[in-house]
TrEMBL record:
Residues recorded as bearing Phosphohistidine in the entry: H88
Residues annotated as domain HPt: 48-141
Keywords assigned: Phosphoprotein, Two-component regulatory system
Organism: Eilatimonas milleporae
Signal peptide: none
Name this protein carries in UniProt: Hpt domain-containing protein
InterPro entries: HPT_dom_sf, Sig_transdc_His_kin_Hpt_dom
GO biological process terms on file: phosphorelay signal transduction system
GO molecular-function terms, A-Z: protein kinase activity
Lineage: superkingdom: Bacteria
Length: 166
């Protein structure tokens, strides 16, 4: 084919391999075998059991970055970038494994630290408040909404946010 400027244009049609893999399945008609579903549920259950131990490692990393930002104020911005990255990773996982408070607290921490050019003493205090709240959730194995404990942790964190917000 030739376009308006006389340039030869070629169109390529690539095979839709995904369509081939789902051939014969009407939308909504796909089924998963009971065995495969049970196996997936068992794997998720196992991962949920391991989640508190795994996420504790991330909380320790957050705590280390916070400590570095206290000890080395001239490098706070790079420490906050790492804190933001860790919080971003954490916010997508807590709810999946039965700890939505971790997701909520990590989302809040990410919002506070993401893309910050200036890192004040107040922001450093807010990071500490978030890390302390997450540590309390995992140490107490506060799953789900946490009931009264979850409400108290959320309230305490919100009070810190109100106090230290700029």
């Amino acid at each position: 084919m030739v376009d308006k400027k006389g340039v030869i244009v070629r169109f390529y049609r690539f095979k839709n391999r995904l369509k081939e893999k789902t051939a014969g399945l009407a939308p909504g008609a796909a089924t998963i075998s009971a065995d495969a579903l049970a196996e997936a549920e068992q794997a998720l259950s196992k991962m949920s059991e391991d989640y508190p131990d795994w996420v504790q490692g991330l909380i320790v990393k957050l705590q280390e970055q916070h400590g570095r930002s206290v000890d080395t104020p001239e490098k706070r911005r790079e420490f906050m970038e790492e804190i933001s990255r860790i919080a971003h990773d954490m916010k997508g996982q807590g709810g999946t494994f039965g700890y939505p408070l971790i997701t909520d607290f990590a989302d809040s921490l990410y919002s506070l630290t993401q893309g910050r050019k200036e890192v004040s003493d107040n922001l450093v205090e807010l990071v500490k408040s978030h890390v302390d709240a997450m540590r309390a959730v995992i140490r107490g194995r506060v799953s789900g909404d946490g009931g009264e404990i979850g409400k108290k942790l959320t309230q305490t964190l919100n009070e810190a946010i109100d106090k230290y917000s700029e």
